[in-house]
Amino acid sequence: MAVYRENKEFRILSAIGIILVAAGHLGYNIFEMGELFPYYSFHVFIFLFVSGYFYKKESRDRIGSYLAGKCLTLLAPYFAWNLFYGIVTELLHRAGFFIGQPLSLKTMFLSPFLDGHQFLYNFPAWFVPVLFMLEVINVLMRKVLSMIYLENEWLIFGWCLLAGVLTVWLAAGGHVWGWYKIPGRLLFMLPGFQLGRLYREKLEKYDTLGDGFYFACVMGVQVLIVIFCAGLNFSAVWVSSFVNGPIIPYLTVVTGIAFWLRIARIMSGIPYVSGKMVWVGRNTYSIMMHHVFCFMLVKGFFYLCSLYTPFCADFDTEMFFYEINFVFLPGGAEASKWIYLAAGVGLPLGMAELWRWIKDFKKRKEKR
Question: Is the pTM of this model over 0.85?
Fold first, then answer.
């Protein structure tokens, strides 16, 4: 009987990725290492890299069951929560909020594949339908290439990177807009998935440099990029904000992932830290889906304080009711973003643990 051995390093990398995503949605740059590694220059690609790393080559020989499994693990929970947030949006509209679109067949089933920002309280989960489509493209592409004996990792990565570079070039010229955003988003992000495959199959065995020399190389390259290139951030979901040509975005993806991958490896060797980070890494789906709504709960608390206590008197009620990205800082203290970050990560973890406890309780009850 095969024993499953969890890959702690990549679990931790996933945990780092989701923490950076949550911090990015707060505009909290505390983890950017002095603006050396801006979140939006690589963080979405961490999840593509991890997904590509764990793709199994034999999946192309059982495409039906593979895609059925992806529907079950990716799309089914997504649409369940999409319905939940659609209902929440309707209820909050009646309470005076102007955030999110009305619940409809379009916002339930079509908008998730167009941009994923239909209800806004769960907008970070736009990534889930995109990842599903990338998984479909990847396995079908590999099936065809295997039939003509061209399933070579270097070749696949090269083709995908070329398509991605061309997409960035077109986007920078204003040609990726409207309906073109959909294929543009997929082509731009596909190299990230293939980078994970390339790393596992070809590069991982050479990733043996000592930490000191490794960080000197990665950070040295990144310092040069920051010095000579302004505005490294880009938008993966909107395929926009490329101000440094078509190559630099992919270079910052590589350096950003390389930096945090080694941090994850170091953390995996520290028992207490690795245990906590692996726990976060197991629940990235839940955190991705719910952290913005958890931010809303924190703002709701501050709103109530402004109504019934002398605290938070400067709370901006209009922004609270109209703008999903509004972040109220009590006393103007930037450090209060830690409250939001703790809630955005901690509450979904608590929800996941509660759900796991309920399932375990039912199993124990059935065995009696």
Answer: yes
**154 to 13, 164, 184, 194, 339: CA distances (angstroms):** 24, 15, 22, 9, 44
CA distance 334 to 26: 10
d(CA 41, CA 55): 24
Contacts of 152 (CB under 8 A, 6+ apart): 145
CA distance 335 to 337: 5
Residue with tokens 């702690």: 8
Are 170 and 179 in contact by the 8 Å Cβ rule? The answer is: no
The answer to whether residue 79 sits within a structural domain is no
Q: How many domains does the chain have?
A: 1
Q: Do the domain assignments include residue 223?
A: no
Q: Please report whether residue 342 resides in a domain.
A: yes
Secondary structure of the chain in HEC code, one letter for each residue = CCCCCCCHHHHHHHHHHHHHHHHHHCCCCCCCCCCCCCHHHCHHHHHHHHHHHHCCHHHHHCHHHHHHHHHHHHHHHHHHHHHHHHHHHHHHHHCCCCCCCCCCHHHHHHHHHHCCCCCCCCHHHHHHHHHHHHHHHHHHHHHHHHHCCCCCHHHHHHHHHHHHHHHHHHHHCCCCCHHHHHHHHHHHHHHHHHHHHHHHHHHHHHCCCCHHHHHHHHHHHHHHHHHHCCCCCCECCCCECCCCCCCHHHHHHHHHHHHHHHHHHHHHCCHHHHHHHHHHHCCHHHHHHHHHHHHHHHHHHHHHHHHHCCCCCCCCHHHHHHCCCCCCCHHHCHHHHHHHHHHHHHHHHHHHHHHHHHHHHHHHHHHC
Instruction: Tell me if 11 sits within 8 A of 278, measured CB to CB.
Output: yes
pLDDT digits (tens, 9 = 90+) for 50-99: 999 999 999 999 999 999 999 999 999 999 999 999 999 999 999 999 99
On whether residue 353 sits in a domain, the answer given is yes
CA atoms 305, 311, 313, 315: torsion sign: negative
pLDDT digits (tens, 9 = 90+) for 248-305: 999 999 999 999 999 999 999 999 999 999 999 999 999 999 999 999 999 999 999 9
- Residue 321's domain comprises 284-367
